[in-house]
Amino acid sequence: MSRAGHQGTSLLSPVADDRTARSPGSAVAAAFADAVESGRLDLPLPGGGRTRERWAVLAGLAGEDLSLARLAEGHADALAILAELGTGTPPGGTRWGVWAAQPPGPGLTARLAGDGWRLDGTKQYCSGARSCTDALVTATAPDGDRLFAVSTRDLWPVLGTWPATGMAASDTLDVRFADIAAQPVGGPGSYTSRPGFAHGGAGVAACWYGGARAVGRTLLAAAAERDVGPHALAHLGAVDVALHTARTVLEVAAAEIDADPDDREDGGRLRALRVRALIEAVSTEVMHRVGQALGAGPLCRDEAHSRRVADLTVYLRQHHAERNLAELGTLVTSRGVTW
User: Fold this and answer.
1) Is 326 helix (H, G, I), strand (E, B) or coil?
2) Is 97 in contact with 132 (CB distance < 8 Å)?
3) How, if at all, do strands 134-141 and 96-99 pair?
4) In 3D, which of 175, 106, 117, 176 has the Cα closest to residue 141?
């Protein structure tokens, strides 16, 4: 099909930055590009002894902007995946995404053609669809689910597929693939079976924590500036306990990952489910308590706060609520966990 026959916008690398600059998330796209170019996202790999430092950077970025953190976390995760699966370090300045969502609906298929793999179909929820130069994508192949590396230059983001207010600047669109050349990364099933899959899942929670901490700071700042009353102070105390608990859990999890990076004790999935559930609950509580304490004012008159709440509400839905809790309960039962 000719370019004119496609709907959406192509991702030709030479003009990607110019095109993105005209999109609603232009400031975030520019900040993402700058973070890559400056080396800010050259983070320690998970399990290398500095996982706490890695997560602290992600939490800090989330405090600045959750859409920026989403792009940064995807890029950092992609570099960790490439290192773990032995494909080396990508060229400097490239901006990576990890597009691995597999919701109901159209999907992505992989086939061998000649001496290489080709991808066809539509991938949903591709964060950084117009700001990443490359991506790791999951696709269904004849021998099972596989992970592939692709350049975004010939992909077709489908405009209008992310009308949401929350995480609007993350540029999370559906992307069409039409006979796209792809490089396999690992073998069938290796993306989810590797130890780093669980480590990365826990790392996403560091972004949620950073966003929740920033929401909580709105209440902290208000209490420092004026008499907010005893009820708001009670909410502030509860927020302090919740955030302290979340930070402690992340620090413990980071230490455990560094102590067992290859997950020889098979605790990675259990740990990730616990961490994600706890941070999701804390983040939800913090948003609720700040709203109860301060009322509608910050949501209506503080653009940064209201956007942060909207963004965090969407971002937290990467935790699949009761489905993830049921999986956690199954692991707790099967492994004879005691408290």
Assistant:
1) helix
2) yes
3) parallel
4) 117
Q: What is the per-residue pLDDT across 154-201, written as a single tens digit (0 to 9) for each?
A: 999 999 999 999 999 999 999 999 999 999 999 999 999 999 999 999
Q: Is a pLDDT exceeding 90 seen at residue 15?
A: no
- How is residue 339 written in tokens? 């408290």
What one-letter code names the amino acid at 320? H
Three-state secondary structure call for residue 178: strand
Residue 9 is predicted with a pLDDT of 32
Q: Are 68 and 74 in contact (CB under 8 A)?
A: no
Question: Residue 14 has what pLDDT?
Answer: 30
Q: Per-residue DSSP letters for 89-138? A: PPPTT--EEEE----SS--EEEEEETTEEEEEEEEEEETTTTT-SEEEEE
Q: What is the token pair recorded at 246?
A: 């979340």
**Using an 8 Å Cβ cutoff, are 207 and 60 in contact?**
no
* pTM confidence score: 0.92
Give the largest Cα separation in the chain, rounded.
72
- pLDDT at site 10: 33
Q: Is residue 278's pLDDT more than 80? A: yes
Structural domains in the chain, CATH included, are: 1-189 (2.40.110.10), 194-334 (1.20.140.10)
User: What sections of the chain are H helices per DSSP?
Assistant: 13-21, 26-38, 51-64, 66-84, 190-193, 195-225, 230-259, 268-294, 297-301, 303-315, 321-334
Residue 136's DSSP bridge partners are: 98, 149
